[in-house]
UniProtKB/TrEMBL annotation:
<dbReference type="InterPro" id="IPR028082">
    <property type="entry name" value="Peripla_BP_I"/>
</dbReference>
<dbReference type="GO" id="GO:0030246">
    <property type="term" value="F:carbohydrate binding"/>
</dbReference>
<dbReference type="Pfam" id="PF13407">
    <property type="entry name" value="Peripla_BP_4"/>
</dbReference>
<protein>
    <submittedName>
        <fullName>Sugar ABC transporter substrate-binding protein</fullName>
    </submittedName>
</protein>
<feature type="domain" description="Periplasmic binding protein">
    <location>
        <begin position="26"/>
        <end position="274"/>
    </location>
</feature>
<dbReference type="InterPro" id="IPR025997">
    <property type="entry name" value="SBP_2_dom"/>
</dbReference>
<comment type="similarity">
    <text>Belongs to the bacterial solute-binding protein 2 family.</text>
</comment>
<dbReference type="GO" id="GO:0030313">
    <property type="term" value="C:cell envelope"/>
</dbReference>
<keyword id="KW-0732">Signal</keyword>
Amino acid sequence: MTASLSRHLSQSQKFIPRIGVIIIPTDPFWVQVYEAVIHANQQRGADLVVLHPASTTEELLEISPDFLVDQVLAYGIDALICTMATEEFLLGMFSESIPVICLAEMKPIHSLMSAMTDLYPGGKMAGEFVGSRLGDKKRVLCVYAGQEAIPIKGVSRLEGFQDGLRKFSDVEVEPIAAYWTYQQTYSVLLEKFSHTRQRFDAIFGVSDALILAARDAGRKTGVIDDRTLLVGLNGDPLALSGVAEGSLTATVDIAAEDLGSAAVDLAWKAAYGEDLPPHLPQTFQLITRDNVANVAARKLTLIADLPSYLVGYSRQQEHDRLVQLEAITDISQKIGSLLDREKLVEVFASAVRHHFGYEWVRILRWSDQEKRLTFYGGDLSP
C-alpha cells in the first residue's frame, strides 16, 4: 500500500513522475511559491499530488513523524516538495528512497535532499541599502520571528542585515523578537512602540509581513515618519504595493516564482534517479520605486490563477471528505454482521482498495513471538 504505484509501470509505458507537495500557505510568499509549482508542473507534466496534512506549520510539526511518513507514502509518490519538516520525518522518507526538495532554510542531511540556502544574502542586501542612505542617523530596528516555536526565526536574515549595515556605519541594530504573522507581530510592536519616545530612523523586517506590521504600528504610535527607512524581504504583493505608493522604502525579492520552478525541476530529475544538489538556486533583487512596476507585473502573472485555485481547492476538500464518508459507511455496513475474522479482514482490504484506488492492500499484524510484523490479510504481493 505504501509502494509507489509509478514504480510498477511496465517498461512499455512512459514513466510519469508522481510528485507530492506539502506547502502550507500561511504567508503570501508561500501562496506565490505554490502557484509557481503549479505553473512549472504544467510545463513538465508530472502527476502532482497536493497533500494537506495540517493547516499551520505548528500543527505540521506536531504530527508524529512516523504517522506523517505513512500518510505521504500511501500516495505512492516518487519525490516530495515540502516547506518545513522535522529531521525524523525526512529520515523516514529517505529510508524509503524518496527524494525531498525542502523549501526551508535547513542544512541538507542526506544525498536525497535539496534545501534552500539561508537568506543571509537577502538581509545583507537590505543592510547595505539602508546603510547607503542612513547617513549619521543611528536608531535602527530589526524585527524577526524570535518568539516563534518553530526552528526558523529569520536569524540569518538579521545577521546579514547587521553585516551589510556595518560597511557604512557602526550603528547598533536593535533586534526585536516577534512572529511570522502580521497580526501577532503588530500586537508585539504596538506594545513596544507605545513605550518608546524616540523616532526610528530605519526598520528592517525579515519578511514583508513583519515590515508591514512595523509600518502600521509605527504610524499609530508616532515612532516613524516619512523619513523613516522601511525595508522588508520576500517581494510579496502587499509590500510591492507599499513600495509603489511610498509607504515602504524597499523590499528584497527572493523570487518565489524561480524557487517553485526550481523545486519542480529538481523533483522531476530526482524521480528519474538523477543526483540532487545540496541547495536550490536562490536569487535576490532589491525592489524600490524605480523598478517596482516591472516586478509587480511579473508577480501578477504568477498569481493570476489564484482565484480559480481557491475554488478548486474548496471543491477538492469537499470531494475528499465525501469519499472518506462513503468509504467508512460502506466498510461499516460490510463488516458489521461478519463474525468470521478472516472474512472480515478480506472484506476490509477489498473495500479500502476499491474506495481509495490502491492497486493492492496488505494488512499486517504484530507478532509478539517473532517480534515483527507478519502478513494478516489482503494481497500477498503487488
